[in-house]
């Protein structure tokens, strides 16, 4: 399920769908309610990994150690 499919179903832009789901104030309550209802009806779940990758924010910690014990 994508934002594009929700936008097409509701006749609004993908940007508006995204802004509604992310809680921006410039989206009317009526539009937000329509978007949320359609997203719920379609079982939309945001892909947090894809979002973080696109935004350049990946919450990960790497640990490197030169000390390795082999048996």
UniProtKB/TrEMBL annotation:
Residue ranges constituting the HTH lacI-type domain according to the UniProt record: 1-55
Alphabetized PROSITE patterns for the sequence: HTH_LACI_2 (PS50932)
Keywords: DNA-binding, Transcription, Transcription regulation
SMART domains cross-referenced by the UniProt entry: HTH_LACI
Pfam families tied to this protein: LacI
Alphabetized InterPro entries for the sequence: HTH_LacI (IPR000843), Lambda_DNA-bd_dom_sf (IPR010982)
Superkingdom assignment: Bacteria
MF terms (GO), sorted A to Z: DNA-binding transcription factor activity; transcription cis-regulatory region binding
Listed name of the protein: Raffinose operon repressor
Origin species: Raoultella planticola
Gene assigned in the entry: rafR_1
């Amino acid at each position: 399920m994508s934002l594009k499919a929700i936008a097409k179903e509701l006749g609004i832009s993908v940007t508006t769908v995204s802004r509604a789901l992310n809680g921006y104030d410039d989206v009317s309550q009526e539009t937000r309610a329509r978007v949320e209802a359609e997203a719920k009806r379609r079982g939309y779940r945001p892909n947090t990994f894809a979002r973080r990758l696109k935004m350049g924010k990946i919450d990960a910690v790497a640990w490197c150690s030169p000390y390795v014990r082999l048996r």
